[in-house]
Specification:
This protein is an alpha/beta fold. The protein has helices at about 50-55, 60-65, 70-80, 90-105, 120-125, 135-140, 150-165, 200-219, and strands at about 5-10, 20-30, 35-40, 85-90, 115, 170-175, 185. The protein has eight helices and seven strands, in the order βββαααβαβαααββα. The strands form two sheets. Strands 3-2-1-4-5 form a five-stranded mixed sheet. Strands 6-7 form a two-stranded antiparallel sheet.
Length: about 220
Amino acid sequence: MNEVFLDTETTGLSFRDGHKIVEIACIETKDLIKTGKVFHKLINPKRSMPEEAFKVHGFSQEFLSDKETFDKVVEEFLNFIKDKRIIIHNASFDLGFLNGELELIQKEKIKNELVIDTLELARNKFPGTSNSLDALCKRFNIDLSRRTKHNALLDCELLREVYINLLGEKEPKFNLSSSPSEISFNKSKDYNKTIVKISDNELKNHERFIKTELKKNFY
């Protein structure tokens, strides 16, 4: 089963409060390596854009006014994610909007059992700390310089790198035929996990610190 990294941008925080999706992005991978297949749509929400949301993603009501509505892109979207494991950061947010939109047009909702929530994985691995996508990128030394605004397609790229790091292995290979917990590893694959190398100068400074400062403070 291939994977899909998915992200959305919206007009607000809750579909139940009348907010809508304005962007959907999906990147397909096989064993976490990109296949080159991408789904990316900007969507006309048919409503005003709150200033708070505009500051987050930069999409104005005027800019989105000539884009397709959700019902026009839904078949292409559903075909893209069909029979794939879906990986989302804070899945309850994105699924709340996607399933709300699907329910409005009488389409089958996305099943929770097909979804891996990286926020839950991060909270289990790093309890008591910030586990936002930004925070995880910083933790794993993933370049955030391009993320001046929230962008669903870029966030999918970042999420793939975060997810590989969350697995705790340099070269993971998924076998997801039945459940997310079934994981095997293929040492022939090359993934983009960041490895930080310590310079000789840093090692010397560390040794000097151990010999002088620690000795001074603790002995």
